Amino acid sequence: MNDALQEIHNFLPCRTPHRWIENALDQQALMLIDHAHCEKKAASTALSLMYRYVDNTELLNKMSRLAREELRHFEQVLAIMKKRGVTYDHLTPARYAAGLRREVRTDDPGRLVDVLIVGAIIEARSCERFAALAPHLDDRLAEFYTGLLKSEARHYQDYLALAEQANGGPVDERVRVFLDIEQSLIEEPDTEFRFHSGPVL
User: What pLDDT digit, counting tens, does each position of 57-85 carry?
Assistant: First the structure.
């Protein structure tokens, strides 16, 4: 797992700011609620790709597996929340995913390439944040977040491989475009804490 995490650290443009980790530790109930929303959204994204690109067998297989895993994670977060007396509720979405998706092209194959790159970046950042948080959490939550690292790292790799397939070759140039946006979203101060927010000062 150390190799996969190192690959993700090499891929992402920056580490999570320490102030964000402090925000998360101060608002663990909110962190769990938004984490549940993120898992559900990840499953939804995978399913929407399956509906849109029905002729891409490799994408169908990988997204089917990914959706099942994300829904299982959703159930696991809900179970942890129930034990802790945290109520699952609606939340306004973070600016993060919308900020990344603004740059997605409108026509295929560019659209598919960009959506898959955004998926890879979101999964990589989730993995990085689980690893950054785990040493600061109670044993149960730390064990859960550490356990998620392997699947999130694989999801990142799957998304990136599918992007290269859709592009018919390397996607480095488009990846750099989205990573520049991602760095701003992660490092610049945010107005409200979310799992993928910037630091709230």
Answer: 999 999 999 999 999 999 999 999 999 99
